[in-house]
Amino acid sequence: MTDELVFYTNPQSRGRIVRWMLEEVGQPYRTEALDYGTTMKAPAYLAVNPMGKVPALRHGDAVVTEAAAICAYLADAFPQAKLAPPPGDRLRAPYYRWLFFSAGPIEASVSNKAFGFVVPPERERSIGYGSFDRAMKVLEDAVSAGDFIVGSSFTAADVYVGSQIAFGMMFGMIEKRPAFENYVQRLRTRPAFARANDLDNALMAQRKQAS
Ligand SMILES: N[C@@H](CCC(=O)N[C@@H](CS)C(=O)NCC(=O)O)C(=O)O
Description:
Elements: E1 5-9, H1 15-25, E2 30-33, H2 43-46, E3 56-59, E4 62-65, H3 67-77, H4 92-114, H5 132-144, H6 156-170, H7 178-187, H8 191-210
Parallel strand pairs: 1-2
Antiparallel strand pairs: 1-3, 3-4
Helix pairs in contact: 1-3, 1-6, 1-8, 3-6, 4-5, 4-6, 6-7
Glutathione is lined by residues 13-14, 36, 40, 52-55, 66-67.
């Protein structure tokens, strides 16, 4: 089937972001579950993602990797799901802005903080996120401005930004500020989020039982 969607994941990974997005899109897809260190680094999967990391998505003969890129791709590939402002719409500006801000500066600042790397103040002008505190404040203000991060409706940017914040808080890497908790709480009322969570939890249990 040339238009088949194949989702490469592990239920304990950033693949959960993409699962949620796929459930929002509502198109049928096939899941290929991979194991850390083995099938994820085997030649068959390295041909899909040479990084040997999940998530990845195949759509017919096209492959997209990077959770944020996959969310953006799916929103554009299935516009009927209305998960992105249409190309040409001015809302495309904040849409790109917050997707890229989360995948770049936020991800880097959170990882660096978690691994104990502190940017010396004199180098803040050179590093893309400036300082962890500044990046967090900008994110906090962005999710406080309305119910959703782009305009007045839910988009793929919420899937990605909301997941980054939720995982960051869950692993103690992002402070549980009220604005973050309220934003995540709002997003978690989405039926697609619940479906995705149930599917990944079931996959996790099934794999635990099989091992
Ligand atoms: N920048 C990638 C990061 C992907 C990533 O690091 N995935 C981890 C799981 S959350 C992984 O596959 N690790 C396996 C490995 O590196 O061996 C994205 O956003 O999709």
